[in-house]
Design brief:
With about 110 residues, the chain is of the alpha+beta class. It has one domain. It has helices spanning about 5-20, 30-45, 70-85, and strands spanning about 1-5, 50, 55. Helix 1 (about 5-20) packs across helix 2 and helix 1 packs across helix 3. The longest helix has 17 residues, at about 70-85. The chain binds zinc ion. Zinc ion (ZN) binds near residues 27, 32, 86, 88 and 93.
């Protein structure tokens, strides 16, 4: 099947993984990573290409890519924003399951 792929997404995903290896977010769950991806991609130009089972059929030149420094700057910005205001509560997070008793509403 022919697929539309956004090369910017590939680049951003890689940049995010690199960033997460170096920096610790308060929550790095799948939900937060998706939020970071969405936020970053909305701020960068999309670069779509056509692929067939992973094979790239439409080749455009690498100068069409957003430059790495800009990608990383946007990733860092989105990480800081999501880290400061995660879009889920602590209870929703798979990684933060401790001390959630007071948030269940049963403590009154
Ligand atoms: Zn999270």
């Amino acid at each position: 099947m022919y697929e539309l792929k956004n090369h910017t997404e590939t680049v951003v995903r890689q940049a995010l993984q690199d960033y997460l290896k170096r920096s610790k977010l308060r929550c790095g769950c799948e939900r937060c990573q998706s939020d970071i991806m969405a936020m970053t991609l909305n701020r960068l130009p999309a670069r779509y290409y056509v692929s067939l089972r992973g094979e790239i059929l439409t080749q455009w030149e690498s100068q069409a890519l957003p430059d790495q420094a800009r990608v990383m700057a946007e990733v860092v910005r989105a990480c800081q924003q999501v880290d400061a205001t995660p879009s889920h509560t602590a209870n929703d997070s798979v990684s933060i399951n401790e001390n959630n008793n007071s948030e269940n509403g049963y403590n009154q």
